[in-house]
Amino acid sequence: MLDRDSCLVRNFKHYCALDETEAELLAALEKTPQTMSNAQMLWEENHPADTLCVLSEGWAYSYRSMDDGTRQILNIFLPGDIIGLSDFSPRRHLTSVAMLTEGVVCRFPLNNLTNIFATSSRLTTVLFSLAGQQQAIMAERLVNMGRRNAREKVAHFICEMHLRLSKTCPNTSHQFHLPLSQQVLADVLGLSAVHVSRTFSELREEGLLYRERNRIDIPDLKAFHEVAGFSDIYLSDSVDELLERSDRDSHSGGGLR
Description:
Elements (H helix, E strand, L loop, with lengths): L6 H7 L6 H8 L5 E4 L4 E3 L7 E7 L2 E6 L5 E7 L4 E2 L12 E4 L3 E7 H10 L1 H27 L2 H19 L6 E3 L4 H8 L3 H13 L4 E3 L2 E3 L3 H8 L11 H12 L6
Antiparallel strand pairs: 1-8, 2-7, 3-6, 3-8, 4-5, 4-7, 9-11, 10-11
């Protein structure tokens, strides 16, 4: 029996109940903790993708470097996230990944995932759902950059981060920690740092959002969602039907089909 849940186990328990074997399979992915410093690289674009990692503590981000020296940040990773799921097929890292804060990562070989695929259809279902959710976040990021104005971009991204945090940290309130600098936000949203600063000032003046260093305060979440035009459907937890089917198939001797 595990003494306490690993970060990944806690994350998966948000989606489904786990038996002891499933919890141990996940905990095994966090057996090699490595302390990381702020801005330290996990890997670089085009390097062989022979390992993935669990982000046990801290925040990280993926990005692509441009020829002019700028960068486009594609995703923000939170504690409990598996980094590298999108690289499982091409076997080369499609993006560079670096730490946003100090933290702990646990690297593991790809065959640890195939172990899970062979052992637990329920965990396989959740893993594929998480990979699909990461793709959905990327699709929403494209819409955010291409079709929303600066005010909507900032508000929508803040709504997304708040919802993602609240899934694994149930005590997340309208006040929460967001350790992203102005430049990081600019590189996520495709704006200049000056434009990001101006947008935060406008939202503050309207009483919609207060930002003090890395602390965010949203007094009225419903009103803020309306400003952002935010719908949480792309972050939906609707894996219940898939899990029910997985359980039925397991009991009948089948598998995921």
